[in-house]
Design brief:
The protein is an alpha+beta fold and 136 residues long. It contains two helices and eight strands; from the N terminus they run αββββββββα. A hairpin with a 7-residue loop joins strand 7 and strand 8. It is globular, with a radius of gyration of 16 Å. 18% of the residues are buried.
Amino acid sequence: MFRYIYILGFFYILPSCINAQTGRFKLTGKVNHKGLKFLVLEYSSLNNNTRRDTIQLKNNKFKISGYLNHPGVGGLYGIDKNGNASLRNFAQIFLEPTKMKLVITEGQFKYVNLKGSSMQDMADSIKLLQKPVNDF
């Protein structure tokens, strides 16, 4: 019962998040994945243009900033030292015009740890509710 109330609450709050003010986001983070050389972040920027930024990792750390019309979903994937990308190194994240911190762990790319995005926090909570009882 509480699962459905929580999901309904998410969709009740979502429109107010989407109507938030246009602004700049700053994303910093650490990548605990020895095989990656670059990250690529795709998102909808100002005027709803799709933007694809390539981020070079330096000492397994990165930082990037950009502008958003509104909070939304971004795609993040890693490129290895040979220039290859893989679905194994792909994740969807919720970007907001704020400061956010991201941690990526090898073998768990789709379970990135993003702090600073309230929409990501809500999405992570819903994912936990969807897990079967035996997975805990």
